[in-house]
Each structure stands twice: as structure tokens, then as C-alpha cells.
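Continuing the batch. This is chain 6 of the set; chains 1 through 5 are on the previous pages. Same settings as before, nothing changed between runs. Recording input and output for traceability.
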Amino acid sequence: MNWNPPAELPDEDYPLLLTTGRNLFQYHGGSMTRRVAPIEAHAGEPYVELSPEDAQALGLRQGQVVRVSSRRGSVELRARISRGAQKGVVFLPMHYREACVNVLTNDALDAYAKTPELKACAVRIEALPQRGRRRRGK
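Output for chain 6:
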């Protein structure tokens, strides 16, 4: 079987490729891990991870609130700039209902598995006006 590219690739309007996945500290939708104070203290906020090169090109700073948009929707969250991120590819974990990544993803079906392509799509990122940090309630 040959590799097939994602159904939606970056273009002029949506120049970055989004990939979704998990982070080390949260589990699935967070129904249990999001209730554990030490985990929330360490990994309790959604983020988009991007390369220093992409952050510089977009004029973004570490921790800045951004909007990530696809052809299907948008989410607002903080930017996490990482040397581990590949230029042109951004990562968004799937654990946070406050920034539900599946609002962005493509439900085009894989030709062989017949499952939705929820792991990759084209997105753009824009900075939002600076605002104070939200306080998390219990």
C-alpha cells in the first residue's frame, strides 16, 4: 500500500499543517486527569506548539494568545514555541474541551480504513490582542 497525503494540504490561505495528538500528562478527553491538581498545575491549559521559525514569521511570542483557524472553525489558546516543532507543522493536543481540536480537523474519509481524517488539516494562526491571564476555577 502506498502512502497518501492528507486530504487537505497547506495553501496560501491556510499555510500551516496541523497535526493532533496527546501530551504526556493528560489522558484522552481528560475526564479523569483534568481532575488531578498536580497534573492540572503542570498541563492544565490547551496550547498550540509551533517552531521558532514559524513564530518569528508570524510575530508571535511564547505564551501569547492566538487563534488557530481552519476551513471548519477556530480555537483560541496560547502559543508554545518549541525547537522540537518542525517548520510548517503545528501541534495541538486533543485533551482540552476549551480548545476542542476536532472543531478544526477534516472529516474526509480515508480511502482504505473508511475512518475520518482527524489527525491533519491546513490551518492559519493569528495573534489576538493581549489580555490578562484567566484564572481557573475549581
